[in-house]
Design goal:
Number of helices: 8
Distance between the termini: 42 Å
Strand order of the largest sheet: 3-2-1-4-5-6-9
Bound molecules: NADP nicotinamide-adenine-dinucleotide phosphate
Largest sheet: 7 strands, parallel
CATH superfamily: NAD(P)-binding Rossmann-like Domain
Radius of gyration: 18 Å
Shape: globular
Order of helices and strands: EHEHEHEHEHEEHHEHE
CATH class: Alpha Beta
Number of strands: 9
Length: 257
């Protein structure tokens, strides 16, 4: 197992769920971290808590990954000691709505494509040149089983995660000679803020998604991310697919009454 002590890990979307769990998990292994999201107060609170708990270096800043100019500017102005990112976790993402395509709101499509696809491209585009110069790095994309299979009422979310899958595989080929790894972590049902965001704040609908089964947690996914980031230097984990124990696919879920 490779040590994470002193490594510099950049996690997008660290205010909630998988991103937040990952920030604590990496810091718990002695990594220094850079975290961001749009809700800057929460990012800063998490940064302070992590510094106190683990004594690692943390840089936190506000970022909307959809805004390419801001992404470039913010990343170019990282303090010197936070510039050499070893591991990038492209986690920021969302679902908006769960409706038949013809009844769905196109504004949600824009949000999903701009965040899950363009946002991931924006951040990768800003971080990758430094990794290429240093001939060292690891990019871990948070995909989804929605990137392996389409499900009803999820056309655009599934399309966005299929895009993440394609970007992961294509990028791996493009930088095969650069000593940079590219991996994807693709989970099924994880109980995070995801469903509340997907249903525009409707707690009842969000709760129903996980009814009758024990879903994965952000910590379960963070475990898989840590595994992926700590393999010996000659190993690349291309992809990890994680499902809740009672989930067989995106659509086949066994729920206790
Ligand atoms: N939960 C699941 O069942 C599941 C399954 C497979 C994959 N995933 C993927 O896992 C990733 C994390 O989701 P989660 O489940 O942990 O959901 P979550 O709890 O809602 O967290 C999403 C994070 O993304 C951030 N974010 C959203 N839009 C952003 C933007 N434009 N710019 C910067 N940050 C943004 C949010 O922060 P702010 O709101 O503060 O910006 C938040 O920190 C997503 O890519 C999601 O598609 C989730």
């Amino acid at each position: 197992m490779e040590s994470l002590k002193g490594k510099l890990v950049f996690i997008t979307g660290a205010t909630s769920g998988i991103g937040k769990s990952s920030a604590y998990a990496f810091a718990g292994q002695g990594a220094n971290i850079v975290i961001c999201a749009r809700r800057i107060n929460i990012v800063n609170e998490i940064a302070e808590d992590i510094k106190q708990k683990f004594g690692v270096k943390v840089y936190s800043f506000e970022l909307d990954v959809r805004d390419r100019q801001h992404v470039l500017k913010a990343i170019a102005s990282f303090p010197e000691e936070f510039k050499k990112i070893d591991i990038l976790i492209n986690n920021a993402g969302l679902g908006r709505g769960l409706n038949k395509f013809y009844e769905d709101n196109p504004d949600g499509w824009d949000e999903m494509i701009d965040t899950n696809v363009r946002g991931l491209l924006n951040v990768t585009h800003a971080i990758l040149p430094g990794m290429i110069d240093r001939k060292k790095g690891h990019i871990i994309n948070i995909g989804s089983i929605a990137g392996h299979e389409a499900y009803p009422k999820g056309a655009v979310y599934c399309a966005s995660k299929h895009a993440v899958d394609a970007i992961t595989r294509s990028l791996r080929m493009d930088i095969i000679d650069k000593n940079i790894l590219v991996s994807s972590i693709d989970a099924g049902l994880v109980e995070t803020g995801f469903s509340k965001v997907r249903f525009y704040g409707d707690e009842e609908k969000a709760k129903n998604v996980y009814k009758g089964l024990t879903p994965l947690t952000g910590d379960d996914v963070a475990d898989a991310i840590i595994f992926c980031a700590t393999r010996p230097a000659h190993v690349n984990i291309a992809e990890i697919t994680l499902l809740a124990a009672r989930q067989a696919s995106a659509t086949v879920v066994y729920r206790e009454e």
